[in-house]
TrEMBL record:
It is found in: Cytoplasm. Residues 1-341 are annotated as: A. This is Chaperone protein HtpG. Keywords: ATP-binding, Chaperone, Cytoplasm, Nucleotide-binding, Stress response. Homodimer. Coiled coil: none annotated. The lineage of its organism: Bacteria, Bacillati, Bacillota, Bacilli, Bacillales. The gene is htpG. It comes from the Bacteria.
């Protein structure tokens, strides 16, 4: 049988792909398994419309076998198979997807979902194999065919024997080369872990023979190695299940299985959207911040799946920075498996999902704030700083989203309060939200500047975090009430006289002039104040930058 040539572009593409598309070799298995799953899905679709086919779930499975001696790895499925023509066109032309064509022809829009649509996944096999043989018998055909290829040079097709409908793909695994360990792909337990990682939620059983140490019958200390066929994948992912079937414990267990964190999540959000873009998501709000959370090392992101197949461990595009603490995953049937990181950044669907998730996270936090204040305060202790950074960053673009999630310590309530609560308690005629900055609540309490404001019965928010005042300045106001530092020149308190209108005696004037002369580089003015009670003197502020902010700014690297 004459060797057919891959098309010229295909040849170049194949080389390129084998060496660059996939960051890890192990994903070849994910690709072959997803093709096998697609092939079974196609049988399922046929059965839906053709009464002569019965779809008995137990007849459909994927098998992985290893022959270490021959360095062979095979992936077998009982799916729809390929005809001679299909072998030539689907496996012979790169970037041609039989699965995409099948979807289009059958106008499949929902239900079980076929993963393939790019037409490059199959070639990932050449990342680990010297040559690949495909035996396939198509549904409705008696004759089976064998496709064989050593890579970019082309392929051959010839008739072969195959008892049942379906496809077997045999890889001749490469020999170990310097620093490249290919033997691992012949190790059942390693293959099992790869399947768990990428293909745990493939809807059909993935079977494998695995050895296990078992106690010998009628012995309690002698073990023997038994080889047993096992289903490796768990098939139905938790996010595809109905919320009503799941308990809080199920979600917590999943959080731990996934190693999202060592803590217990404070909350989970389970989302299922069936609109313009379809996706499911499970999100968690952790209880404690990871040790590196407020450092440049921390990487935000959610796991991204396409129809149950993992395509990315951390897709940062799915979360805004101010919610970077959220853990979890998104699974969408509308994303393709082979999507690359560069493409993701421009993906419109991903942006839509991000917007939607952001809204849900906000709703969930507001709900927690309303219904479980203690829990919310715990959350705020861990991640409140990030929300305040969110208000400050991007020129306050996100302040509308975040302002109701902020908490500050209140001088009158002696606990954390929201801005809304502050405004609701404001005195008649009060037009500003007062705040004071300092290192600790105790220090702020002793500031001369807070004295008069306190005495007149006004509530003051104590800002003790570096970022606080920057965030407040970015907010400008809340509910049309402007923020005002108790250190600012004009407090405009009710029944407070204009400080400067008080006549000074000549003696006082002379004293003030003298003080100004001595302090000339340090202050802009020296004034008499009615603000002071028990303190003889205090500093006030005229400009936009407060004394506290200046301290923070001067500590920042240039
Ligand atoms: P994609 O899955 O994105 O379509 P692939 O390169 O993974 O691209 O596969 C190319 C095509 O080969 C598939 O669309 C499908 O038509 C066919 N194919 C691959 N593997 C199998 C299989 N196990 N059974 C039936 N058809 C298959
Ligand atoms: Mg594929």
């Amino acid at each position: 049988m004459a060797k057919q040539q891959f098309e010229a572009e295909s040849k170049r593409l194949l080389d390129l792909m084998i060496n660059s598309i996939y960051s890890k070799r192990e994903v070849f298995l994910r690709e072959l398994i997803s093709n096998a799953s697609d092939a079974i899905d196609k049988m399922y679709y046929l059965a839906l419309t053709d009464d002569s086919i019965t779809f008995d779930q137990s007849d459909y499975y994927i098998r992985i076998d290893v022959d270490k001696e021959k360095r062979q790895l095979t992936v077998t499925d009982t799916g729809i198979g390929m005809t001679k023509e299909e072998l030539a066109s689907n496996l012979g032309v790169i970037a041609k997807s039989g699965s995409l064509a099948f979807k289009n022809e059958n106008e499949i829009k929902d239900g079980h979902d076929i993963i393939g649509q790019f037409g490059v996944g199959f070639y990932a096999a050449f990342m680990v194999a010297d040559h690949v043989t495909v035996h396939s018998r198509a549904h409705g055909e008696e004759q089976a065919y064998q496709w064989y290829s050593e890579g970019a040079e082309g392929f051959t097709i010839e008739p072969c024997e195959k008892e049942s409908v379906g496809t077997t793909i045999t890889l001749k695994i490469k020999e170990n080369a310097d620093e490249e360990d290919f033997d691992q792909f012949l190790e059942p337990s390693h293959l099992q872990s790869i399947i768990k990682k990428y293909s745990d939620f493939i809807r059909y059983p993935i079977k494998m023979e695995l050895s296990e140490q078992k106690l010998k019958a009628d012995s309690d200390d002698e073990y023997e190695t038994v080889i047993e066929e096992k289903t490796v994948n768990s098939m139905v992912p938790i996010w595809k299940k109905n919320k009503s079937e799941l308990t809080d414990d199920d979600y917590i267990q999943f959080y731990q299985e996934k190693h999202y964190g060592f803590d217990q999540p404070l909350n989970h959000i389970h989302i299922s959207v069936d609109g313009n873009i379809r996706y499911q998501a499970i999100l968690y709000i952790p209880e404690t911040a990871p040790y590196d959370y407020y450092s440049a090392e921390y990487e935000k992101g959610l796991e991204l799946y396409s129809s149950g197949v993992l395509i990315m461990n951390k897709a940062p595009e799915l979360l805004p920075d101010y919610f970077s603490f959220v853990k979890g995953l998104v699974d969408s049937e509308d994303l393709s498996l082979n999507i690359s990181r560069e493409m993701l950044q421009h993906d419109r669907q991903l942006k839509l999902i991000e917007k939607n998730l952001t809204r849900k996270i906000k709703q969930e936090l507001l709900k927690m704030l309303r219904n479980d204040r203690e829990k919310y305060e715990k959350f705020f202790e861990a991640f409140g700083r990030q929300l305040k950074f969110g208000v400050y960053n991007d020129f306050g673009q996100h302040k509308e989203t975040l302002k109701d999630l902020l908490l500050f310590y209140s001088s009158t309530e002696k606990k954390l309060v929201t801005l809304k609560e502050y405004v609701e308690r404001m005195k008649e005629g009060q037009d500003s939200i007062f705040y004071a900055t300092g290192e600790t609540n105790a220090r702020i309490e002793r500031l001369p500047q807070t004295e008069l404001v306190q005495e007149k019965g006004y509530e003051i928010l104590y800002l003790t975090d570096d970022i606080d005042e920057f965030a407040i300045k970015m907010l400008v106001d809340y509910d049309e009430k402007t923020f005002k530092s108790v250190s600012s020149g004009d407090l405009n308190l009710v029944d407070d006289q204009d400080e400067e209108s008080v006549e000074l005696t000549d003696e006082e004037q002379a004293l003030f002039n003298k003080m100004k002369e001595i302090l000339k580089d340090k202050v802009t003015d020296v004034r008499r104040s009615k603000r002071l009670k028990s303190h003889p003197v205090c500093l006030t502020n005229e400009g936009e930058i407060s004394i506290e902010m200046e301290k923070v700014l001067s500590m920042m690297p240039d």
